User: What shape does this take?
Amino acid sequence: MAVAESPPSDPEAPPKVRVGRTPGRLGNRVFQGISTASGIFILIILAAVAIFLLVRAWPALIAAPSAFEDVGFMLGRDLWSWVWPLLFGTAISSVIALVVAVPLSIGIGLFISHYAPRRLAQGLGYLIDLLAAIPSVIFGLWGIQWLQPLVSPLFTWLSTNGATAWLEENVGPTIFTGYQAPARNILTAGLVLAIMILPIITATVREVFLQTPRLHEEASLALGATRWEMIRQAVLPFGRSGVISATMLGLGRALGETMAVLMVLSPGYLINFYLLQPGQHQSIAANIASHFPEASGLGVDALIASGLILFIMTFGVNLIARWIISRRAEFSGAN
Assistant: This one.
């Protein structure tokens, strides 16, 4: 019985695609569904928080100014004249924290990524990460018991030295005018916030600097650049967007910090730049934590309205940061 020979297979023919169920297809669908649901869930939570704040704050937003006269902690002010000093105190303490923390974080990140020996860099990296796990109440205690006595002589000198006295006599009050011990002022609160956001910014900046393409660094060194010139020409331009992202992360932490500011700062409801005077400023988050247990009725609505303003402020900061980063997305070390 003759057996029919099968035609020779064409080596250039495309491989046959198996039709039917392929391994892993069900897993891909499940994973895609879970990922999509997680993204939608985050949007739902964000929308729910915004709606809750708006609904609870609405009575305070539409109330007449005279309605707040019975709210003791508002000191007879209407909603907006009460909120503006809190918004100013929140902003100025966060700016002080960024001015101190960002240069330190960039320096630490560059040292860990490009200067320190490997073992030392690993140890410093672990130490920085551990600082991020310290509760804010510990930072508040540290600020009261250690930082305030340490900076008090410096603040005294800043307030009484010849240059400050000459400026006060010929120009007017300065930002260092009127220091009174202990150092329960907005500058001390900003320094505590700077230490608190330092680990977040440093960890992000360090990882961004480590992602700099090796070829860029070697090309700069091959052209005769020193290590610092290589960092300035290759590392810093590549990591610029990452530094902005890290700064915005730190700013978000500083804007919403509550317990440390509440413990360190002597509160006030004024808008000025007297950084060393106690009883001048207060942040929104610390003010809510301070007065919420005793608030009732319209006072609760006013506190929630201030929380809504803080929510909008934080959301706006993040939107601006994303817009800045998107302008340099092709060069970003954070994307």
Observations:
- Residues 25-62 form the longest helix (38 residues).
- The radius of gyration is 28 Å.
